[in-house]
Amino acid sequence: ELLEKRRTEAEKEQEKMRLKKVKRKEEKQKWDDRHWSEKALEEMTERDWRIFREDYNITIKGGKIPDPIRSWQESGFPKEILDIIEKVGYKDLTPIQRQAIPIGLQNRDIIGVAETGSGKTLAFLIPLLLWITSLPKIERLEEADQGPYSIILAPTRELAQQIEEETNKFGQPLGIRTVVVVGGLSREEQGFRLRMGCEIVIATPGR
């Protein structure tokens, strides 16, 4: 009877251990099966990023492509940039912004394809502005002949002016000067503004 009792106690203990293992396994499985939106950034796996891209219809080609941005709050951008984003009312990133901005921040070449109104301008503008703000500001006259830090080419005057409008939303609060160089406007005025010094030139190929 004593042996039987001991065996029963041992079996009970063994059964408890087995149930604990099963429970841990179930919890781990449940943990792994969570949707990416329920996970913290550091918990994201390759599978999560793949599902993330599928959810936002992001298709990529190339090597060592960085992870997309899930939200402005997780972007790691300086507060002054985030404040402007909030002020202009951009609540969330568009698909092309989520993937193109991290690539731009690595100073890599990128071809981005997205429909009209999908936020392509901001997708290349934010990496550009972050880079420019890390450089010394061009001073009037003495250093203006060193030229702008960036030239943005657009196929039409209308598109160039749209890009200028978007650039000024962010550039002006940061003290970044933009000059648009397009046909239909005074060459003398544009030349004067260039001589005054600027960080960004937006232009059409003809002008």
From TrEMBL:
Sorted UniProt keywords: ATP-binding, Helicase, Hydrolase, Nucleotide-binding
Species annotation: Bracon brevicornis
Record has Nucleotide-binding as a keyword: yes
GO molecular function: ATP binding; hydrolase activity; nucleic acid binding; RNA helicase activity
Compositionally biased tracts (Basic and acidic residues): 1-17
Record-linked InterPro entries: DEAD/DEAH_box_helicase_dom, Helicase_ATP-bd, P-loop_NTPase, RNA_helicase_DEAD_Q_motif
GO terms under biological process: regulation of gene expression
Region (Disordered): 1-24
EC number: 3.6.4.13
Residue ranges of domain Helicase ATP-binding in the record: 101-207
SMART domains hit by this protein: DEXDc
Protein's UniProt name: RNA helicase
SUPFAM superfamilies (UniProt xref): P-loop containing nucleoside triphosphate hydrolases
Domain DEAD-box RNA helicase Q: 70-98
Motif segment (Q motif): 70-98
Broad class of enzyme this protein falls into: hydrolase
Listed Pfam families: DEAD
